[in-house]
Design goal:
It contains 4 helices and 4 strands; from the N terminus they run αβαβαβαβ. By secondary structure, it is of the alpha/beta class. β3 (66-70), α4 and β4 form a beta-alpha-beta unit.
């Protein structure tokens, strides 16, 4: 836990690939701990409604400036767009979405 907290508090760029829906939910819960995170890239993931709600809350309060999403699953991609739309209502720091 100590090493995890040391890593997340200094991490500025995070790239994740192949996350199943439960891990996307875990990511949403962990994002607030990444206080210095500037860019997030998520590739080939699955997403659930529960993860969308948690991601929307995480995006709303994050300091992210750049988000890159690459996915081949249309339903999960739609859910991610929904999370972004909700999160961006409160957060103006994300200025680059790809």
């Amino acid at each position: 836990e100590k090493i995890f907290l040391e890593k997340v508090t200094t991490c500025e760029h995070l790239e994740l690939e192949g996350l199943p829906a439960d891990q996307m939910l875990a990511l949403a819960h962990a994002l607030p701990l990444y206080r210095n995170l500037k860019s997030l890239k998520v590739k080939t993931f699955r997403c659930s409604e529960e993860a969308v709600e948690a991601l929307a809350k995480a995006f709303a309060t994050s300091g992210l400036q750049s988000l890159t999403v690459c996915n081949d699953d249309a339903e999960s991609s739609k859910l991610m767009v929904k999370a972004l739309a909700e999160g961006l209502k409160m957060n103006k720091s994300i200025t680059n979405i790809d």
